[in-house]
């Protein structure tokens, strides 16, 4: 009986009354229709969302392929103070970035210039990342979106299967607050409503990520944007080491609001099938460097002993 009622309700609520895409946390049933189109139905909004090279994915560490070409990412302009505007765009908070900020190296095969950064999070510091590692979801994930420098816009870059390079960083809960995030977190109070923005106090991208020598281990795969249109144009670089933020700092993001006035929480797309794709890992580079350092220290001590 209960099962029957459930199916009847499910059928009654099968259609969306609006063609706006949204996260699962925003989908509710009103008068027999969904208020917006949730992730399971995004292919109705953008057909590409149903294709086979979608993001995010679950990264299975046992199955990664070590790729010695995955040298460290070279960051340009990440140390510079930027005068940035942070916006609540109704789906996330986004910061527009100056195009003088660039990345190269890391077997990317081109220079990519920054466009914007944004975040995906859970609810009050609970799991909410998009990518997962061996099934584990982190509390938040940062995406720094870059395009091949030969293009003039994201719209142009997404027509190329490697037109976009996104750097993904996980966060983890730390006992102490990460004061480098004070500017961003304090600004959230001023942009609780969609369509509002505020200028951030002085901040550099290096303040938001980890020291570069802690970013040598990363995963690489070919995927898509994680919001509609879901364009399969992204070279993904997902770093292994997580950025620390306190529970309070992570929870501050849950005070933002969606356009329907409900808390902006669980702003992630569920993981997508990996299909034939391999995930590569930069691990051997780090291994080689440590092996060389180890060997050279052994030789140095031998040399010191024999002299
Ligand atoms: C739901 O239906 C009721 C009665 O027909 C109507 O008054 C109300 O505005 C509808 N709500 C929405 C969100 O469409
Ligand atoms: C942000 O909001 C606070 C009040 O909550 C206000 O004092 C401050 O001036 C605002 N900042 C900006 C840059 O608008
Ligand atoms: C910020 O908001 C103001 C007022 O709504 C708007 O005029 C301006 O274009 C916005 N700036 C950015 C960078 O989104
Ligand atoms: C992963 O490495 C293999 C070689 O082991 C290579 O053929 C493939 O193109 C690499 N994939 C990515 C996404 O870099
Ligand atoms: Zn994203």
Automatic annotation (TrEMBL):
Location of the protein in the cell: Cell membrane
EC number(s) given by UniProt: 4.2.1.1
A Gene Ontology molecular function term of the record: carbonate dehydratase activity
Cofactor: Zn(2+)
Chief subcellular location: membrane
PROSITE patterns per record: ALPHA_CA_1 (PS00162), ALPHA_CA_2 (PS51144)
Subunit structure: Interacts with SLC4A4.
Family classification: Belongs to the alpha-carbonic anhydrase family.
Alphabetically ordered keywords of this record: Cell membrane, Disulfide bond, Glycoprotein, GPI-anchor, Lipoprotein, Lyase, Membrane, Metal-binding, Signal, Zinc
Signal peptide region: 1-18
Swiss-Prot/TrEMBL catalytic activity: hydrogencarbonate + H(+) = CO2 + H2O
Topology class, membrane: Lipid-anchor; GPI-anchor
Gene Ontology CC: plasma membrane; side of membrane
Described function: Catalyzes the reversible hydration of carbon dioxide into bicarbonate and protons and thus is essential to maintaining intracellular and extracellular pH. May stimulate the sodium/bicarbonate transporter activity of SLC4A4 that acts in pH homeostasis. It is essential for acid overload removal from the retina and retina epithelium, and acid release in the choriocapillaris in the choroid.
InterPro entries on file: CA4/CA15 (IPR041874), CA_dom (IPR001148), CA_dom_sf (IPR036398), Carbonic_anhydrase_a-class (IPR023561), Carbonic_anhydrase_a-class_CS (IPR018338)
Record's protein name: Carbonic anhydrase
CDD domains recorded: alpha_CA_IV_XV_like
């Amino acid at each position: 009986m209960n099962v029957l009622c459930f199916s009847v309700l499910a059928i009654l609520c099968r259609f969306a009354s609006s063609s706006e895409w949204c996260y699962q946390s925003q989908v509710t049933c009103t008068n027999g229709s969904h208020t917006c189109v949730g992730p399971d139905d995004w292919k109705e909004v953008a057909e590409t969302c149903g294709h086979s090279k979608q993001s995010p994915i679950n990264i299975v560490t046992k199955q990664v392929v070590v790729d010695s070409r995955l040298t460290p990412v070279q960051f340009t302009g990440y140390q510079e103070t930027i005068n940035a505007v942070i916006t609540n765009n109704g789906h996330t908070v986004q910061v527009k970035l100056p195009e003088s900020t660039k990345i190269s190296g890391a077997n990317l095969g081109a220079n990519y210039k920054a466009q914007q950064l944004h975040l995906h999070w859970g609810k009050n510091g609970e799991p909410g990342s998009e990518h997962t590692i061996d099934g584990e979801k982190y509390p938040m994930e940062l995406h720094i979106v870059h395009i091949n420098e030969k293009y003039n816009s994201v719209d142009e870059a997404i027509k190329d299967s490697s037109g976009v390079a996104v750097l993904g960083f996980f966060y983890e809960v730390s006992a102490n607050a990460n004061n480098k995030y004070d500017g961003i977190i304090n600004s959230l109070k001023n942009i609780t409503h969609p369509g509002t923005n505020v200028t951030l106090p002085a901040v550099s991208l290096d303040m938001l990520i980890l020291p570069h020598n802690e970013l040598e281990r990363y995963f690489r795969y070919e995927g898509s944007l994680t919001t509609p249109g879901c364009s399969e144009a992204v070279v993904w670089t997902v770093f292994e080491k997580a950025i620390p933020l306190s529970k309070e700092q992570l929870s501050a993001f849950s005070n933002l609001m969606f356009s329907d006035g409900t808390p902006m929480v669980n702003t992630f797309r569920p993981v997508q099938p990996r299909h034939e794709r391999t995930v590569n890992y930069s691990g051997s580079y780090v291994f080689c460097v440590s092996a060389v350092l180890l060997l050279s220290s052994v030789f140095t001590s031998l040399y010191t002993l024999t002299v």
